[in-house]
Structures are given as C-alpha cells and as structure tokens.
Amino acid sequence: MRIDLNSDLGEGYGPWTMGHDALVLDCVSSANIACGGHAGDPETMFTTLRLAAERGVVVGAHPGYADREGFGRRVIPMQPAEIGRMLAAQIGALAALARMAGTAVRYVKPHGALGNLAAADRTVADAVVQTVMSVDSSLAILAISGTCLEQAARARGVPVFSEVFADRAYLSSGQLMPRSQPGAVLHDVQQATQRLIGFLRSGRMPVAGGEPIALNADSICVHGDSAEAVEMARQIRAQLHAEGITVAPFVG
Fold first, then answer.
1. How far is it, in rounded angstroms, from Cα 116 to Cα 218?
2. Where do the domains of the chain lie, and which CATH numbers do they carry?
3. Is 112 within 8 Å of 73 (Cβ atoms)?
4. In sequence order, what are the residues at sequence separation of 6 or more whose Cβ sits closer than 8 angstroms to the Cβ of residue 196?
5. If we measure between CA atoms, which residue out of 26, 27, 8 comes closest to residue 18?
6. Measured between alpha carbons, how far is 190 from 168 in angstroms, rounded to an integer?
7. 70 neighbors 18 (Cβ within 8 angstroms)
8. How far is CA 189 from CA 13, 55, 57, 194, 195, in A?
9. Is this model's pTM higher than 0.90 or not?
10. Residues 159-215 pLDDT 10s
11. Do residues 163 and 137 make contact, with C-beta atoms less than 8 angstroms apart?
C-alpha cells in the first residue's frame, strides 16, 4: 500500500512567519502552498517552492478567499464566476514562481472556508473545477473525500484524488467539523496517529455522534499551522512505515 502525506505550507507573509515549513517538508511528499489569498506573498511562495524542490516534494496550489485577516476561514459572498477568477489569479501566480524555483504546480487544493464550501456546494465545486480546467488542463484536484468537489471533478473527467485529515474531526456527513466547535482540531499526536492508522486498516473514519463512515484516501493532510505539526508529521510518517505503507506523492 502507498499513500501521500501532504501539508498546507507557505502561510506567512512579509516579516510574519507561520510554522516550520522546512522541517515539515522533510516529512511530507506533497506541499499545498498558499498563493497570496489567505496567506503568502511572492517571497514566501518562492522560498517555500524552492525548499520543496530541493527535497523532491510535489507542490500544489492552495488558493482561498483573499482574507488574510480571517486566514481564509470566513466565507466571503462571491458569485461562482468571481470565485473562478480569484482562483485563476492565485494559481497563475504560484505557477509562475514555481518555474522560477525549478519546479511546477501539479495540483490544486482549495483552502479553508472555500474548500469547505466547495465540499458542500456543487455550484461552487463546479466553478473550482472549471477554473482548473481553464487554467491548466493537466492539473489535478485534491478534494476532501466523498464531497461535492470530488464528485464535480469526476463528472468533468478531471484527475481528482481523495484527501483525509489526520488532525481534524469529522461529522457524520463526511464534512469536517467546524473549527468553532470543541474538538474540531486534534492536538494529541498519539491520538491522531492511532485514529489514522485505524482508519487505514478499516477504511472507516470515526465521526462525532455516529458510527464510523467509509472514506477513500489517496492523501493524508497534516496542517502546517499547528504547534504540533512537525511532531505529528514525523510520528505519522514513522507509523506508516511501521505498518508497511509507502509514503509517495499521489501525482508522479
């Protein structure tokens, strides 16, 4: 068995930094890099891209609402076409810097509130898929497993890969538990690792207030902005290795 391990990185800007990207990049096989919307600026993007290229880590665009104050975790009312243009601008910026850094953007994973909205709203999901197709038809989409975005990509024949989260709680609908609810983010590294391994063995993810649900998984996300990010990425990779699971990118 093989699976991808990814993290959301490059989420600082200007003099402000977040997380320990270089250390996380030593553990993961794919990096979702902020594109200047919820976080990121040209220098931060370029530095993160170069660090990923040096380690042979595949890079993807992580575009979201242009809301740095809210870190892209608030829904900004926009028409689907406006969302598409916003995404195109961010993906294009990262793609240009990737060429300068000696690598290439291989996939798109919507960030935060936009990612959650695309997971639940087919109209928004269709807008994301159409944008990816228009910007670069070779790009894949990384989507929360079992959601509208995954379904929309498959309907249009766009390569799509299913993602599960090591450090987030789930609802019985398969959506991520809102961060405003207690227990939405898992901080205990051992607990998160054991839950993940249990899921990989059974194919069923524990959820709040219900029986575990079946999910597909091509990739596992460990958020790079948590205090436990480095330890969690290291522990999960070590445990995957112990289980005989190969960590490798979902795109070649």
1. 18
2. 2-247 (3.20.20.370)
3. yes
4. 164, 166, 220, 236, 239
5. 8
6. 14
7. no
8. 27, 24, 23, 9, 10
9. yes
10. 999 999 999 999 998 989 999 999 999 999 999 999 999 999 999 999 998 999 999
11. no
- 82 to each of 12, 39, 52, 59, 79, how far by Cα in Å? 25, 19, 30, 25, 5
